[in-house]
């Protein structure tokens, strides 16, 4: 059985910057327990095998871009989708949880 | 900021062994950013060097800058590192508003370079072989400005503004293994190491290497342990140490602060600390916690970096001389005494003096100008001498004008201020301003006569062998001619007159 | 219904080329159809008649001026709403992006515009393409034109239903674990997931970067081939884009010949869990292929058993990171909690309000799979299983040129039926997921109607990486055999939709 607890769900939601209600914690704990038990099956396939990992489906290497300037967005285009901006910059609430 | 208790430095070293570790971030001077074609430029209008990639718009994908990869390999080679035959980028996941994607594209368990070493010599003559753990490629973050509140700092701010011009600028992070055995010289060693890194990346031409612009940034790890203890003590990581002097001061401060705590039996908290140049102190930042679970995984949008042997060898063939070798060579070539040479190194003037000598100056003259008058001017302007707007060629020209007797010291110093003011080369200024030394006897004799008229006793004094009396007349002549007189010639003429 | 909109795209481009119809006329006919049926089907999240018509008028003008145009110029197309467009909102089915108009076009969209295909609108999808039914779209589900109480498949249910209801001749989809193929299967349409890297992902709002691929959706195989030929090709903005051309898919689709081809039936993708009607039609097609001269072999892919588990680790892990950029700073929704909140709280509140339950579930699962202490057991293990699945395919392709299976275990299920049971929902993709894990191409072709419910079923064709042309060759040949037997195209069995004024 997996070890998905409500506290773990809260912790993971915090790491993913998602506010969760108590009701959601309860529901996700239940659902994720089932899912995690099910996906843990991957380890059965590997028993007794020494297999390399595949992170990219099609093996390729050394794909580079030449160091040549391409057009940027204008400041107005860059800020066009911003919920809030000022002084040519993106504006966000104060960062208080640090320092 | 609470005031820390500090232990006397010598006492701290008696009680504890110092272990340091250094993480240096080098900003590469590529034309474009690490993963997109936006200009890698400092100081432009905010959010003008940005595109869907570096502000992480949905759907955008990164593409690796070839030059940045080659520069990183060169740095690795210059640090005697192994170059990875297969390296991948990885995502380092954490939320912060200056990090557009909320992950940093970096390298994790497969850095491009690893297992290197750098020899660093200290002013005392002690030599340290610093082991390099790794050098890896990553990207810079954007710039946050905190608005409101009294300090402009993060605390008390009402809101913050984000500029992503710097987001995605290529960085190489160089990480040392723990450095033991520096003892009381640990702070000097930290600074000297960063100085060497700067010299290397500047010599390679891969970075502008200006610390004041953040091209080279240092995080200093410091831990203490009782002498003889094997287990390493808890370390702190001091960030934001952005000058060589600050590195030295910050390391020294942490040694004294940690020693005071340990002596009282207080445990050191593993945390990030911030260096405050104005206060000369560090302050506590974020403690390391579960939140530091960065969930690294291989970047699926980028393919592995597999530099060929040919590429590595061609980059190796272009490596400049190692800093330690170069120092030995130039000191011998220039014939500087150890003390003289140390001053030059500490002032970061090797490049300048080399350029000046190459342009035709005598090494000692070049040294005197750079460590003397130019250093004094920089100091008075609160600048680093290397920041002065003057080339080695100009300084060389100045020394040649002095050697040729066309300028005396006073005039040369005057010309120097005009060069720094952007008026042109020393000879251009001399002719434009008519500043040449006057050695025309007619003009000098007239001035001598005028001075003697006011001090008629002087000629008798000279005849009696009291040469110091001549000084008053020479001074008066110089004053009358606004310093442009050739003092040596004035003296000769005066003696001739007395003996006539 | 205008007869024009029932035609295949290959016929329409011929008529356009000869000047027998105009692009404005053709575009208007499709827009009229949407006015009549999309209220019920809900394929589109956004339509703007004037943009589509002005693009059509431009092509008509250029054609009249004698300009040499792209083969497909003037053919209207629908685009899944997870591809960025500068002239229409791009939401990926999520509230967090509601109303966002990107300042750049996806590479695929650029190619479509450059070739002169008017874009009819942006089609619905499960939020961020996470789902198999479009029920997780923040803007309501699309419906299956064969039965409006049923799902049109997902995530690309908007693109499947838009071609199945004749609102567009062709559409663009994206496929991370079956999002093109499963919808095609349950709506009687064709969809191909090309080889990973064949089509640029630049401008595709990423779900799982190592699995996502953009591809065509249409009512017949040749039409999909024409669209793949249009959108495929190297893109320097996508580092995983294949450098080489895979050749002409349209040429392959015109061969109509399977003689001597070795076709492998995957033992593990049949039997238990597969609806009888699905299996009956599948067996019939195996016989048809054999009669047409193909050599049928049985292949075994023992590690497919672990594919769903590996997929539901790799996908959430990559997605948790890809979706971190939705933080209320540079675009999209911002929700500020009461009082004087910090940016951290604004981000958390925005993501709480802006993401739906399936997205949150997968982000939290992915965060878990990657977190220290879990990585090796979950994400790391999944990447190793991925290797095993690639090896299974490599062994199978030693014996066969093309592999086949049913596309999905069942026909379209009812809306709401699996909504609260994520694991049951995940099983729809059992046959389609292995291709994404291995990066190989996979196509779903209509395979008749199930006896028990009269709903369409699909057959999946798989080929080695870069061999997409084999799928078009076999797919088109099989399609021809079906049309000869059934007397008309599969889509022509679909019931008439009620037309609204």
Helix content of chain A: 25-40%
Residue windows where pLDDT falls under 50 for at least 5 positions of chain A? none
Parts with pLDDT < 50 across at least 5 consecutive residues of chain C: none
Query: CATH H level of the domain at 1-46 in chain A: which superfamily?
Result: Glu-tRNAGln amidotransferase C subunit, N-terminal domain
Tell me the fraction of residues in β-strands of chain A, as a range. Answer: 5-15%
Q: Order of strands across the biggest sheet of chain A?
A: 2-3
Mean pLDDT of chain C: 96
Assess the beta-strand content of chain C as a share of residues.
Answer: 5-15%
Rg of chain C, Cα atoms, Å: 21 Å
Write the element-wise H/E pattern of chain C from the N-terminal end onward. Answer: HHEHEHEHEHEEHHEHEHHHHEHHEEH
Backbone structural class of chain C: alpha/beta
CATH class of the domain at 1-46 in chain A reads Mainly Alpha
Outline of chain C, from the CA principal axes? globular
- Major sheet attributes of chain C: 11 strands, mixed
Round the mean pLDDT of chain A to the nearest integer and report it: 92
CATH class of chain C: Alpha Beta
CATH topology value of chain C: Amidase signature (AS) enzymes
Please state the second-level CATH architecture of chain C. Answer: Alpha-Beta Complex
CATH architecture designation of the domain at 1-46 in chain A: Orthogonal Bundle
SSE string of chain A: HHHEHEE
